[in-house]
Design a protein that fits this description.
Number of helices: 3
Largest sheet: 8 strands, antiparallel
Number of domains: 1
CATH superfamily: Electron Transport, Fmn-binding Protein, Chain A
CATH class: Mainly Beta
CATH architecture: Roll
Number of strands: 8
Radius of gyration: 14 Å
Structural class: alpha+beta
Strand content: over 45%
Helix content: 10-25%
Length: about 120
Protein backbone atom coordinates (compact mmCIF):
# COMPACT_ATOMS: atom_id res chain seq x y z
CA UNK A 1 0.00 0.00 0.00
CA UNK A 2 1.26 3.47 -0.92
CA UNK A 3 0.53 6.71 0.90
CA UNK A 4 -0.93 9.95 -0.36
CA UNK A 5 1.61 12.72 -0.76
CA UNK A 6 1.09 15.93 1.17
CA UNK A 7 0.01 17.62 -2.09
CA UNK A 8 -2.67 14.99 -2.81
CA UNK A 9 -3.82 14.90 0.81
CA UNK A 10 -4.33 18.68 0.74
CA UNK A 11 -6.15 18.35 -2.60
CA UNK A 12 -8.49 15.75 -1.03
CA UNK A 13 -9.33 18.20 1.77
CA UNK A 14 -10.01 20.86 -0.89
CA UNK A 15 -12.24 18.72 -3.14
CA UNK A 16 -15.60 19.88 -4.41
CA UNK A 17 -18.73 17.93 -5.20
CA UNK A 18 -19.07 14.17 -5.17
CA UNK A 19 -16.29 11.74 -6.02
CA UNK A 20 -16.61 9.10 -8.72
CA UNK A 21 -15.98 5.53 -7.56
CA UNK A 22 -15.23 3.07 -10.36
CA UNK A 23 -15.12 -0.72 -10.22
CA UNK A 24 -15.23 -3.55 -12.75
CA UNK A 25 -17.19 -6.79 -12.76
CA UNK A 26 -15.70 -10.28 -13.21
CA UNK A 27 -15.98 -9.87 -17.01
CA UNK A 28 -14.16 -6.52 -17.01
CA UNK A 29 -17.28 -4.37 -17.52
CA UNK A 30 -16.78 -1.03 -15.76
CA UNK A 31 -19.23 0.60 -13.38
CA UNK A 32 -18.96 4.15 -12.02
CA UNK A 33 -21.03 5.91 -9.39
CA UNK A 34 -21.14 9.32 -7.77
CA UNK A 35 -20.48 9.16 -4.03
CA UNK A 36 -20.93 11.96 -1.53
CA UNK A 37 -20.42 10.05 1.72
CA UNK A 38 -16.64 9.81 1.68
CA UNK A 39 -13.64 10.47 3.92
CA UNK A 40 -9.93 9.89 4.24
CA UNK A 41 -9.35 7.42 7.08
CA UNK A 42 -5.57 7.76 6.90
CA UNK A 43 -2.93 8.61 4.31
CA UNK A 44 -3.31 5.19 2.70
CA UNK A 45 -7.06 4.63 2.94
CA UNK A 46 -10.05 6.43 1.42
CA UNK A 47 -13.52 5.36 2.57
CA UNK A 48 -16.87 5.42 0.76
CA UNK A 49 -20.02 4.51 2.69
CA UNK A 50 -22.19 1.86 1.06
CA UNK A 51 -25.58 3.47 1.42
CA UNK A 52 -27.20 2.29 -1.82
CA UNK A 53 -24.65 0.15 -3.70
CA UNK A 54 -25.85 -2.60 -6.02
CA UNK A 55 -23.53 -3.30 -8.96
CA UNK A 56 -20.68 -1.64 -7.06
CA UNK A 57 -21.13 -4.02 -4.10
CA UNK A 58 -21.29 -7.03 -6.41
CA UNK A 59 -18.10 -5.93 -8.18
CA UNK A 60 -16.25 -5.39 -4.91
CA UNK A 61 -17.29 -8.77 -3.56
CA UNK A 62 -15.89 -10.47 -6.68
CA UNK A 63 -12.47 -8.90 -6.11
CA UNK A 64 -12.58 -5.73 -8.18
CA UNK A 65 -9.86 -3.14 -7.89
CA UNK A 66 -11.10 0.40 -8.20
CA UNK A 67 -10.46 4.08 -8.52
CA UNK A 68 -11.73 7.27 -6.97
CA UNK A 69 -11.75 10.38 -9.12
CA UNK A 70 -12.17 13.79 -7.51
CA UNK A 71 -11.79 17.43 -8.46
CA UNK A 72 -10.56 20.32 -6.32
CA UNK A 73 -12.04 23.77 -5.90
CA UNK A 74 -9.35 24.90 -8.36
CA UNK A 75 -10.67 22.39 -10.96
CA UNK A 76 -7.63 20.11 -10.70
CA UNK A 77 -8.52 16.42 -11.09
CA UNK A 78 -6.94 13.53 -9.17
CA UNK A 79 -7.45 9.79 -9.55
CA UNK A 80 -6.55 7.35 -6.78
CA UNK A 81 -6.32 3.68 -7.76
CA UNK A 82 -6.08 0.64 -5.54
CA UNK A 83 -7.45 -2.44 -3.89
CA UNK A 84 -10.97 -2.29 -2.47
CA UNK A 85 -12.19 -3.92 0.73
CA UNK A 86 -15.81 -4.17 1.88
CA UNK A 87 -15.98 -3.91 5.68
CA UNK A 88 -19.09 -4.67 7.74
CA UNK A 89 -17.38 -4.40 11.12
CA UNK A 90 -14.18 -3.17 12.74
CA UNK A 91 -12.55 0.19 13.36
CA UNK A 92 -13.07 1.69 9.89
CA UNK A 93 -16.71 0.52 9.76
CA UNK A 94 -17.41 2.05 13.19
CA UNK A 95 -15.75 5.30 12.12
CA UNK A 96 -17.95 5.40 8.99
CA UNK A 97 -21.08 4.92 11.10
CA UNK A 98 -20.11 8.07 13.07
CA UNK A 99 -19.73 10.44 10.10
CA UNK A 100 -22.34 8.88 7.80
CA UNK A 101 -25.25 10.25 9.85
CA UNK A 102 -28.75 8.82 9.40
CA UNK A 103 -27.91 7.08 6.11
CA UNK A 104 -28.00 3.26 6.00
CA UNK A 105 -24.22 2.67 6.02
CA UNK A 106 -24.41 -1.02 5.12
CA UNK A 107 -20.60 -1.21 4.90
CA UNK A 108 -17.44 0.87 4.71
CA UNK A 109 -15.79 0.49 1.33
CA UNK A 110 -12.08 1.18 1.56
CA UNK A 111 -9.77 1.98 -1.31
CA UNK A 112 -6.16 1.20 -0.34
CA UNK A 113 -3.93 3.67 -2.17
CA UNK A 114 -1.63 2.06 -4.74
CA UNK A 115 -1.32 4.77 -7.40
CA UNK A 116 -2.31 8.42 -7.71
CA UNK A 117 -2.53 10.47 -10.91
CA UNK A 118 -3.27 14.05 -11.80
CA UNK A 119 -4.03 13.93 -15.49
CA UNK A 120 -1.30 11.80 -17.10
CA UNK A 121 1.19 12.61 -14.33
CA UNK A 122 1.80 9.77 -11.87
CA UNK A 123 2.19 11.24 -8.38
CA UNK A 124 2.38 8.02 -6.33
Amino acid sequence: MALLTEKVSKAWENRKGPVILSTVDKDGVPNAIYATCVTKFDEGTLVVADNFFDKTRKNILTGSKGSILFITNEDKAYQVKGTIEYLKNGKIFEDMKCWNGERPGHAATTLKVEEVYSGAEKLV
